[in-house]
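Hi there, hope your week has been kind to you so far. It would help a lot if you went through both lines with me. No rush at all, and the record is pasted right below:

***
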Amino acid sequence: MSDPFSDLAAGSPLNDWMRKRIGAYYKSRGKKALDIVDQNRVKRYRDFFVVVGDTGEYVVEDDFCSCDDFLHRGGRCAHILAVKVARITGRFELIDLWYHEDLADGSGGTAL
């Protein structure tokens, strides 16, 4: 089975069929990633993406995430997958700040 993100990036819509493919390919992490995107919990700052997770905010940059799942298990966690979906579909909140500026003014984020 080919990576569904390749097809999504090539223009396939994020419809029910694609959602099933993502869930089948990435299992529970894929389903959780779609929930994160559907709940508008992906933020794009000037320096990287931040995903609002169940227990905090996680920095995602390329194939790195600051969550415990990624740090202990490695591989693609739900947060990395959510950012991939969000980037391709444009479904993220754009915040025109550096992440540390948002932390400093107290309007968002939690310390990592």
In short: Residues 16-38 form the longest helix (23 residues).
